[in-house]
Amino acid sequence: MDWHRRTLLGALALPLTGLVPKPVRAEDAVDLLLILAVDASGSVNQYRFELQRQGYANAFRTLQVLQAIQSGLHQSIAITMFQWTGPRLHVEVVPWMVVRDMTSADAAARAIETAPRRLFGGGTSLSGAIDYAMTMFPTSPVKGDRRVIDVSGDGSNNSGRPPTQARDEAVAAGVTINGLPILSVEDDLDEYYRGNVIGGVGSFLVAARKFEDFGDAIVKKLIAEIA
Q1: Which of 57, 86, 94, 187 has its CB 3.0 to 4.6 Å from that of 109, i.e. a possible disulfide?
Q2: Which residues are paired to 144 by β-bridges?
Q3: Cα 39 to Cα 82: distance, rounded to the nearest angstrom
Q4: From CA 47, how far away is CA 184, in angstroms rounded?
Q5: What does the DSSP assignment read for 76-94?
Q6: How many beta carbons lie within 10 A of that of residue 27, not counting itself?
Q7: How far apart are CA 3 and CA 192, in angstroms?
Q8: Domain boundary assignment for the chain
Q9: C-alpha span between 34 and 223 (Å, rounded)
Q10: Nearest Cα to Cα of residue 154 among 120, 176, 130, 124
Q11: How far apart are CA 102 and CA 120, in angstroms?
């Protein structure tokens, strides 16, 4: 009788197991979802583009960046990268990747430095870059405690809607936008980014005086926004 009772109870319990929400495992959550938006507009020649790309790759091989990643509650972040120019010209070149240790950081660096340039002109739409980035957060395979868009570029918005509109909508959705303006073309681009691009909790910018300074600037910026 006891055996039959246990069998019946077990059979009744089986259909209920599918109704219990699956718990989020520690490895399914990260401290930060970080979108890297890289300028590929016409003012960025191939030499300048390579400085940007290698700067990002080298940053993820820097010990201080890895230490910042491992300092959070989940000791991990998720990143993705896309290239942008005009309002509707965007190409994802690095899919979402979780970075938590030296091996995954090196994998991210290799994915960045081997990603080909896919765009070569089409205007400069910072608003378009922000709008596109907002469509990428829902595609992340992991949950993030914070959501940040990291925008780098060498020019002010010259196509598409005003960047302040895109920024304000992103901030209202709980997203932070940080900036890395490169001042080689527009000397006051840092002030433009400060007034029109960055926003949200803890937002900031790190300016690079010229493209050759990009590598050092992105290391400082990644450490600050991750930690």
Answers
A1: 57
A2: 30
A3: 9
A4: 13
A5: -EEEEEEEE-STT-EEEEE
A6: 11
A7: 75
A8: 42-226
A9: 12
A10: 124
A11: 33
Pick the CATH number of 42-226 from 3.20.20.140, 3.40.50.410, 3.30.70.2860, 3.40.190.170: 3.40.50.410
Q: Kindly give the confidence (pLDDT) of every residue in the chain, 227 residues in length, as a single tens digit, with 9 standing for 90 and above.
A: 444 444 444 444 444 434 433 443 445 899 999 999 999 999 999 999 999 999 999 999 999 999 999 999 999 999 999 999 999 999 999 999 999 999 999 999 999 999 999 999 889 999 999 999 999 999 999 999 999 999 999 999 999 999 999 999 999 999 999 999 999 999 999 999 999 999 999 999 999 999 999 999 999 999 999 98
CA terminus-to-terminus distance, the chain:
61
Does the pTM exceed 0.85?
yes
Q: What is the CA radius of gyration of the chain?
A: 21
What is the CB neighbour count within 10 angstroms for residue 84?
28
Residue 106's SS3 state is helix
β-pair type (77-84, 90-99)? antiparallel
